[in-house]
Amino acid sequence: MAAAPPSYCFVAFPPRAKDGLVVFGKNSARPRDEVQEVVYFSAADHEPESKVECTYISIDQVPRTYAIMISRPAWLWGAEMGANEHGVCIANEAINTREPAAEIEALLGMDLVRLGLERGETAKEALDVIVSLLEEHGQGG
Q: What Gene Ontology terms for biological process does this UniProt record contain (predicted)?
């Protein structure tokens, strides 16, 4: 089987995008027979001290999560890409590193995409969420 092509993100801003719109997208380098879902999750309030079950680990839930629309492999909790009710868009990109992978269960990059969208009202807040979660839980794959 041939190696999957790399994934790429794109964004087009006015005047290249018409009617003042911003266009955001990403292709997927996932296996061609893997089911991809496009899913909407409503904003929600959560009980104090509740947990959220990510792909491989559970972490503390926040009091309120924003509404999100995501694209994800059907078996996965996280997201390849998505947007939230505040217009924040995030996509997952794989990169190669020389650092060895952690030997513990941790958050996946796609978990971090979803968590950033659920918890970030702005791009800066989403970035801060992702960095904080990486520091606390690490990243696996």
A: proteolysis
